[in-house]
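note to self — DONT lose this again. spent like an hour looking for the file last time. sequence + predicted structure for the chain T wanted, 343 res
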Amino acid sequence: MTTRMHEEIREQPEVLGRVLDEEWNPVLSAARVLRDRGFRSVMLAARGTSDNAAHYAKYLFEVILGVPAALASPSVFTLYESRMKLDDVLVIGISQSGESKDVLETVRRSRELGASTLSVTNDEESPLARAAEFHFSLRAGREESVAATKTYTAELLLSYLLVAALKGEEAPGEDVRRLPGAVREVLGSGWEGTDRYRYADHLVVASRGYNLATAQEAALKLMETSYVVAESFSVADLRHGPIAMIGQDFPVIAIVPPGKARPGVTALVENLGDRGAEVAVISDNGALTGRAAVRFLVPSSCPEELSPILYAIPPQMLAENLALLKGLNPDTPRGLSKITETW
């Protein structure tokens, strides 16, 4: 069975290439205005998969630009009608459809309250795109599977491009330009040992730093497509109590990225192995993946700040594969639709 999710996962190199080719100039133009105007903090409004992209953007703003960033609580506007002081704040709404009413209201009200506003959507004519001062397009084409894949990595790339432009870069760097090809290499690789997860009904996904967003997105994809009870944790938070639940044969997916987060996640993998946990490892470190019964060796390396774009792909592939192993259709999860309306 060939699913739309499978096909859309494999469209990602082309989507990322279009974002690089067609969106850099709009990003650069907006960044110049925002730099001249100045902003003291960033507020990110999103739901679902886009909320995980917002977590990644938060790390980018805080680590690369040194600007405090926070995730918005849309109910502050929609339920409690707060009038926050948003002068000198950049508010970014991220939504695949651009139809999420609470994200739309957050951006609309924030603009009224003096914030600079920016939207990222896959529909240039959507209400969210029209509500914001600046808009970036995901260039993903129609995404039919309910489980978002190609729009997620496009959101990640646009977040990175915005921060790079705000930092003062006048063109995407070579590492960024290599991403479409690197994603093709990842798509040419595959999982080993996933059949043993066929009957899993619960699991933990763990990582740290930029790839905390990857862990969150992996857990969401598995819940959406395979109905597995999946919980994501920062490695640091997992050690502060929840690790007590992990014992013999407990399934854990460890996303072990390059860079500063690697030592801490590697240490966790070793600790979990001592506990007898069933650990799946995603990493570009062959020595580490080689010791895991369930593994995905990422064939390409890149700077840590770009790694979530590559490391998002193996969990997408796992979610689609696991759904099919369970006899489920990942394109049409029960009770879900492509556009979720909340207020």
